[in-house]
Structures are given as structure tokens and as C-alpha cells.
Amino acid sequence: MTDSTRASARGAGKRRRLAAAAAAVLHRQGAERTTIADIAAAADVPVGNVYYYFKTKDELVQAALAEHAGNLAELTGELGKLPDPLRRLKALVEAWVAQRDVAARYGCPTGTLAVELDKRAEGGLDLEAGRVIRLLLDWVEHQFRDLGLPDPEDLALTFVGAYQGMSLLANALRDPEIMTRQGARLTRWLDSLDGGGTGARPAP
Amino acid sequence: MTDSTRASARGAGKRRRLAAAAAAVLHRQGAERTTIADIAAAADVPVGNVYYYFKTKDELVQAALAEHAGNLAELTGELGKLPDPLRRLKALVEAWVAQRDVAARYGCPTGTLAVELDKRAEGGLDLEAGRVIRLLLDWVEHQFRDLGLPDPEDLALTFVGAYQGMSLLANALRDPEIMTRQGARLTRWLDSLDGGGTGARPAP
DNA sequence: GTCTATACTAGGATAGAC
DNA sequence: GTCTATCCTAGTATAGAC
Lengths: 204, 204
Known about the structure:
Number of strands of chain A: 0
CATH superfamily of chain A: Tetracycline Repressor, domain 2
Keywords (chains A, B): DNA-binding, Transcription, Transcription regulation
DNA-binding region (chains A, B): 35-54
Organism (chains A, B): Planomonospora corallina
CATH architecture of chain A: Orthogonal Bundle
Radius of gyration of chain A: 19 Å
Pfam families (chains A, B): TetR_C_13, TetR_N
CATH class of chain A: Mainly Alpha
Distance between the termini of chain A: 58 Å
Largest sheet of chain A: none
Strand content of chain A: under 5%
Domain HTH tetR-type (chains A, B): 12-72
Oligomer: homodimer
Order of helices and strands of chain A: HHHHHHHHHH
């Protein structure tokens, strides 16, 4: 290994630390209230050095979104090991409910970022969070399709919409129990869809 | 009428214009990206004069929230004229769907503000948006209670959560049709609750 | 009560030494 | 590849003339 590859390896390490720190800090403080210095401190990287890895703050936001997309891919990868699509969706609800305290305090990482970036048209990042949400929607839609249910796209919107809605309410009211109770409702809804046979159940 | 009361009347007019402008501009640009100058321009009031009516930017945000609360009270007041609670809720869904283009572009005014204010702990406004959402929740819960359905509080959370979720998705994906389709689902859900008789329908 | 000019600060970004 | 010092802009808020 040459000096330069070792340097690159160290550099890549810092880059990754900065991306992970960006994801975490942006979630807690929001995109606008977070300064480069905040992210640098969280990643234990000197402030001035950040610009070597990310030329602008927007690039850091982009990196945070990639981080969220990666986390999502990891989660759906795990869930994909379950044989039954219905069990996969139920396990996803369980994962959401398990995060109830974080959701009540800071909301859904991607959802809140989507709201903030929408108001930030300049950088052209206003649609990027939507892309990450789209990844989740597509995966969920695939599960509903595998279950043989009609309108899998609408079902996915209902399902993910319910998650975003309960996260926002839990956050706005600072009440993690909202995640628990609405999560239980979502699970019962999934059961009713599968048990219903015809799939004609009119639930939202 | 004395000079001072006339002056007060003019003053109150400007104050009201500023509050209304704050509500509108904060919705479009977000709390962080909006400057005092933006609000002043929208209200057609000279920048420096703003501070006579609102000592800080936070007070303007507070005024915008009061504006949203007022709009909500007006809407529920109208809906209250309908004799049947079920019709009231359906009419509320219709009102939401009618705003689909605004929702797809800027999200729910109160919901997006709740997300932003959550990250803005300093001013102590972080829970204020939640209070406005609570007003809506209480009204909706009341309708479900009048329908004689069990767990009206949870039903209200599901109903309002569905609205917040569909607004966020419509906004993140810039697709007003999401409001239309999910609104139709919500309406069918309401019908199923009422028609179900037992109210044991497991929908989320 | 209305408006102008300006003080002050935070924070993004860059130059350039090492 | 790492870090310091600094420039520069934007935006809140105030002082004070009218």
C-alpha cells in the first residue's frame, strides 16, 4: 500500500464520518439551523477541512440523503429475508414503532428533510428527499403486489402516508404513544387486507 | 372618533396585514428562509416599521400560527352548520382535496410549520404549531364521538394523520393527484366506519 | 405612529500556509 | 491532504429623525 492510498483510505473514512454526522445532525437540528461547524464537530473533523470533502453545504445535505437511502436499503434487505410479504410489511411497522421516541422528538428523518428541502429551491435539492421516499414507496408497493392486492400503488401511498402522518403528529405533540397506537392500527389494517380475500376493503 | 383611535385603527390594519402576510409567506418559503423584509414587502409595509408591531421575528411566526388557528376555526364553524357529523368530516376531506395544488407545492401550512418549529427550540415556539393541530384533532374527535364510534381519539389521530401524510407525500413528490386519490380513500373509510355499525372495522 | 440608516452577528465560503 | 485566518454576505434588530 502506497502513501497515497493510505491517505485516500483515511480521507474516505473522514468523508464517511462527515456523511453519517450530517445525517444525524440534520435530523436533530434541521437543515437550516445546522452549520458546517456543527457537522464537523459531530464528525470530529476540523471545520476548515470539511470543504476538502464537500465543496458546499448542499453537498453535505445530499450526502445525508444518500445515507438515509443506504439505511433504507439495509432495512429492506433485512426484511426481504422474511418469506411472506405481509410479514415483511408488519415487521416494517414494528421497526417504525421501535423508533417511536426518536420520531416523537425529531420526526421521520427523511420526511422532515423533505419538508425543509421543499422550501430550499435554490440548490435544486428540493426534490431529492422525495426520491428517497420514492424508494420506500416502491418497495412497499412491491409487497402489496406480491400479495395479489388491487391498486398496490395506492395501498403503498396509504401505508407510507400513514407512517409520515403518525410521525408528524407524534413529533408535533411530542407523544411517542401515538406511534404505538397508530402502529397497532396499521397492523390490523394489513391483516384485514390479507384476510379480506377480495381486497375490496375500503380502508384509507 | 379621536385621532388616536383612527391611528390605532390604521395600526391594527397594518398589524393584521402583517399577520396574514406572515402566514402566507411562511407557508411558501418556510420559517427559516423567510426574512422580515419578505413579510414586510408582502404586506406592503416598510421594513423598519414592522418592528413597531412585532418586536421579533418569533412574534411574527406566532401571529402566523394564530392566523392559521383562525382559518381553522372559520372552516370548522362552516362545517358545523351541516347537521350530520359524518357529512362534516366528508366535507372536510373535500376541502383538503380542493387545496390539492397548494398542498402539492407547499404542503399543509400548519404541518410544515410544525416540522420547522420543532427544530427551532430557542424561541420556545417548538410546541406552538402542535397546539393548532390539537385544535383540529379535538374537533375531529368530537365528530367521531357524536357518531357513537369507539376510540374517537384514535380515530381522530388516524384521520388527521392520514391528511398530514398525504400532504407530505403530495408535496415531496409534487403530485396533487395523491391528494385526490387518498382523499377518496379517506371518504370510503368514513363510510365503512359509519356503515359498519359495530365500528369494529380495523382500518388504520 | 412612520420610516431611514446603520450597528451587529452568524455563518458560508475561500486563500493560502503547512 | 490538513488546518488557520479571513473575507463577505445576509439578515435581525435598534437608534433616532421626522
